[in-house]
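ENTRY TYPE: paired fold submission
RECORD: A
CONTENT: sequence, then structure tokens
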Amino acid sequence: MDHPSPHVLLFPLPIQSPINSMLHLAELFCLAGLQVTFLNTNHNQKLLLRHTNVESRFRQYPRFRFRTISDGLPEENPRSSVQFGELISSLQAVAEPFLREILLSSSSDGVTEPPVTCVIPDGLFYYAVDIGNEIGVPVIPFDTISPCCLWVYLCIPKLIQAEEIPFKAGMQGLLRRRDFPFYRLIDYATDPYCQIALKEVESIPRSNGLILNTFEDLDGPLLSLIRSHCQQTYAIGPLHLHLKTKLAEKRMPISASSNSLWEEDHSSIQWLDAQPIESVIYVSFGSMATLSKEEILEFWHGLVNSGIRFLWVMRSNLLRGEESNHQFVKELSEGCKERAYIVSWAPQEKVLAHSAIGGFLTHSGWNSTMESIVQGKPMICWAVYVDQRVTSRFVGEVWKIGVDMKDICDRYIIEKMVKDLMVTNRDEFKKSAEKLSNLAKESVGDGGSSYNALQCLVDDVKKLGRKGKDIKSNCIG
């Protein structure tokens, strides 16, 4: 009896960073000859098509297709960090019956295609694991958060059992209370984000594997701990670098386009072209964080007073609680135009690769952290949410490639840290960052740890034609 040909369904979390990572993975799968369906929300697909060449870029892969699903929210909903819980629960209500239907059916929208033989959802979509197990379709979640945060998630059940959560007065060791994803946690039983994390952790042993965007030389000790919960863990990052390396290997054009849901202002690159080497600090708080006017002013004063040039991404919805900050941004731009440049969104990979950039003031999102590591750029970390809080601690205390400034928004401290990163301790930070950058590049090269892990993942996905069978790979764990 013939077995179905491999057909992977990718289902990302409906925010910028996970979509970016999943699209990189989708293209790597396409290059490996797999059939790929990418399930995006209607809202985000419209933004992708408006701001990128993603449609034409994937047209070169005849076995790839986009599918869309409603996130269950009205179009006018801002879908910001404040509404994140609402977005996740609303999407789940739509996605559960949709996934069940698509996995039971071998054709959809009148287009006959091979049945889905493997689902790769974001790790947060724990319900996809149970649906896959129920129907007999293997599921390998892709956890797009940092592995150090995933490790904390995996520890939460034991912390609860030991009555360490809710947190007591203080915690010793590497992680402090303020470094935890839920550092203000009062009642884990009623906190929705903690409950989602617990459900995600509970689903991991029921999965057919786990994909992480990291590499062995960065997260080896943590990966050993994670593999005690899920032996079949594939560390295949840094994904954006892995994709570029594979495209170069196959002598295919490396696209100049990103996977951005925002319109990129490429004048930022022209401005950087006119700046001295390693003289600029890049400032970006990602796609979801919001700041008060007071916080923005503290950062602005600290940056200006440092005397260091800076390129600042100031999204139109960065200012908390206000529809637009156009006039405010205009006034800030006028007050620092001699040494600074402000844009609403930037082509971040290109910016970090630019020779004029000497450091990165970041929210410590995992994609941003990996992009900074690849380019060997030290970081000042002002973490806001969930995995960012753990990641920022690792940047400063474990990898020694920057400083952790979370929960501090004071112009004098900002000024001092910018000077430390860009002048006083520049050589020390640069040396550590460049060492990790070289290790990242080695990991995705022929025979590197991530190169081999991706090959194992592809081989294992190809074996999943027999529905419901566990992976029997000899190359991970």
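RECORD: B
CONTENT: sequence, then structure tokens
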Amino acid sequence: MHDNMDDVNNMAGSFKEFTKNGKKILGAAFNYHRALQAAKAPKPENPVIFMKSSTSYITEGNKIKTPQGAEILEEVELGVVIGKKCKDVEELDAMLYVGGYCLALDLGLNNLLPEYRKKGFPWCISKSFDTSCPVSRFVDLEELKDPHNVELWCKINGKLQQTDNTSDLVFNIPQLISYCSKYMTLEPGDLILTGTGPNCGIIKPGDTISCGMGEVVCMEFDVE
């Protein structure tokens, strides 16, 4: 029994330290109704999923580093941390595999991403550069009672840039987990970024970007 409890505690520690132990960052693109409307784009039939490298993580106290000649686009998002290994999970059971949450910024290279999308090229370089996934501390399940109804906001140099609510998600958290788990095994510490609303902004060296998730958590990063 003692050994089993040690295993449970070790697993909990593993996913709570998701920036160190997580192997995958999966992002959902085109996943807010308002963003689709603003872009005059049709609703996708299935979630549009891309990957970011785990080396793109940074936490508060570190700076966002701009690759030479790059233009960075910010997207504020709710991040879902996987708590238990799962594969082929049904939507009805998917929330059982959520370990917790975080606030996240999905940063992309705006000078590259539109061209990649237009030509059908992979997004890897644009989405996975070092420091392209700033995240908050781990948020326990008890802290975020309803992840499908939480306000997200982002400010650049103190000016409000984005504000949205996760109630506007095209594909909700169970749908995202179920869909992803059909194609790849999700492991403790893996992160799913649930998408962003419209009005994403450009950040540049010298800027300060701050964002928040309701009254639960907020974070701030300098850009260099």
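NOTES ON RECORD B: The mean pLDDT is 92. The longest strand covers residues 98-105.
STATUS: closed
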